[in-house]
Design a protein that fits this description.
Order of helices and strands of chain B: HHEEHHHHHHHHHHHEEHHHHHH
Structural class of chain B: mainly alpha
Largest interface: A-B, 37 and 48 residues
Shape of chain B: globular
Order of helices and strands of chain A: HHHHHHH
Strand content of chain A: under 5%
CATH topology of one domain in chain A: Four Helix Bundle (Hemerythrin (Met), subunit A)
Distance between the termini of chain B: 45 Å
Distance between the termini of chain A: 75 Å
Structural class of chain A: mainly alpha
Oligomer: heterodimer
Number of domains of chain B: 1
CATH superfamily of one domain in chain A: NADH-ubiquinone/plastoquinone oxidoreductase chain 6, subunit NuoJ
Chain lengths: ~180, ~500
Amino acid sequence: MDLSLISILFVILAVISIFSALMLITRKNPVTSALYLILNFFTVSGIYLLLKAQFIAIIQVMVYMGAIMVLFLFVIMLLNLRDEKNLTESFSFKKLTSVLLSITFFVLIGTTFYFGFSNINPSRQGVEEKTVEIGKATFLGEKLFTEFAMPVLIAGILLLVAIIGAVVLAKKKFDPVSPDKE
Amino acid sequence: MLSSQDVKYLYPFILLIVLSVVTLFLDLFTKQNKKIVSGFSMLTIAAVIASLFYILINDPEIARTQEILHSYLRINRYTIAFSVLSMLGIFITFLASKNYLKKQDINFGEFYYIILFSAAGMLTMLYANDLLVIFIGLELMSVSFYILAGLMRRRLKSNESALKYFLLGAFITGFILLGISLMYGTGLTKGIENPLNLTAIKSNPNFLFNPYFLVGFALFLIGFFFKIGLFPFQMWIPDVYDGAPTVVSGMMSTSGKIAAAGTLAPIIIIMHPSDLTLMFSVIAVLTMVIGNVVALVQNNLKRLLAYSSIASAGYLLVGITSMNIHTLDAVTFYLLAYTFMQLGSFLIVSHFEGKTADGKDFSNIDIGYYKGLAKRSPVFTVIFTIYLFSLAGIPPLAGFWGKYYLFYAAIKANLIWLSVVAILMSVVSVYYYLRIIVYMWFMDSKTEIPEEKNYLKGNMLFFAANVVCVLGTLVFGFYPQLLFEMFKLIQKII
């Protein structure tokens, strides 16, 4: 195993990101969880940087940590959340089964990957050239608005539907047309 | 770039997207009168169907698969057939839903254009030749469905249905994305230019033996099995269909399922994962058993139809498992018959459905209400009986031929045990369909419910929707070859 700076940094970032992900789902206080989520996003954007995808790393910091997480924190503080129960209090056979099933699932995927490693020797040559390209904003913009124009348009409609949906489901006064008016 | 060659295949898309945005604005400017919005959205769907048929008739080149827009999309006769079927489901829903929306106080213009946007998602999925485009289309469709399921904002059941659907659907989205990224990574390390492209995957049949790709494909399948409602991922269907507005449940269980199955079936044919035949068969058997056996004890008609739609997904998987030249034809025919009979049944339930005095729950959806329906409302009883016979698979109705073609494809693929189980399970299903028929014709209601007079008055469009469904069930039952001739498909069994 080579001990270049990149692999050392990767190990550090990966360990922090897994640690923060675990803390995120085990904390009782939702605000603490949200703060750990921010840490997690931060380390992930570091990993993007290591992969030479500067643009995506910056987007990750700006959109997720800047915009979405602030909203998250606001909502958590506005909502009056009650204290979580202990894990042992809410224990049930159903939960045990689901935990066992998900462990089995992860072991299955893990073993597939483990044995997959022994068979495959991925050549990173072509991949690295491509990732350097993808990291540039000009490359992304050019691709998105020429080759990927159609998926981008559909994604725009998806956002439109999401906005309409938020209004439909959450607006306070939203009564249908009364029959006599029609 | 966009060539004129490409544009002529894209007319249905352009029409649908432009006109649905126009519908949105139309709703903004006609605040009081929803008739214009509903009429315009029906016109939109009709125009899309017409343009699909225009391509089919005037373009002989689509006999072979044509790739358009840098091969992000593709078009062939099956694409058109599936698109027409899902648009047909939406058209019938629009025809029939006006009175229901008024009755349940949800006569919003949003109902119409959110369904139109979900139709755009369905077209995207069905046209897609690229896993990324499939994903975006699937999301557009699903997000629209989450909103539609929760359209009755004052009802606890509807809220529960929308929230459940949204949380589970968002979770499953993670599975699909992880699967797609694994497939992408595998392809890229193998030096393939665009590894998400189905054409690229088709030209590398060794892909399936790569463990990373296999895990990715399995996660992708999990996502689609959830959307179609196959065995381990079926538990959301009864709750969601029960709580959603009934016309929306009918639309989701037909058009939504057509889009998901019509996307998945060609992918499975392209990848041809013959090693997975046993897995598919086991899932199909379990789905049919769960759907049919649980449906036996249901008293709520919406839940009963939901379980019957799970069972139908099982029959569909029997056909898909066969993976031979008959598969796509059989799936197309079954979905056609399924649109008419399943959507029709949901429409009938929506016609009799009411609301409780406080307006917080549905009423009259229990099977007890249907006792002696033949005396009260003979016309709709006859219509409902036709749908139920077709669902049970009684010849000469379309539902019989749907099952016949599916099981025929399975037998041709040497899956005889699977077809035997499927036939046995469809015999089980006869019990709960006939039970409704017996309740309607041979039992008397204890409570007095007034007779329905003048069922045509103010109900013309609803009646027209039912006429379309009944005619579809009968015509394709007596002359099943019509579908294959219409879309110039290859099926020549008889």
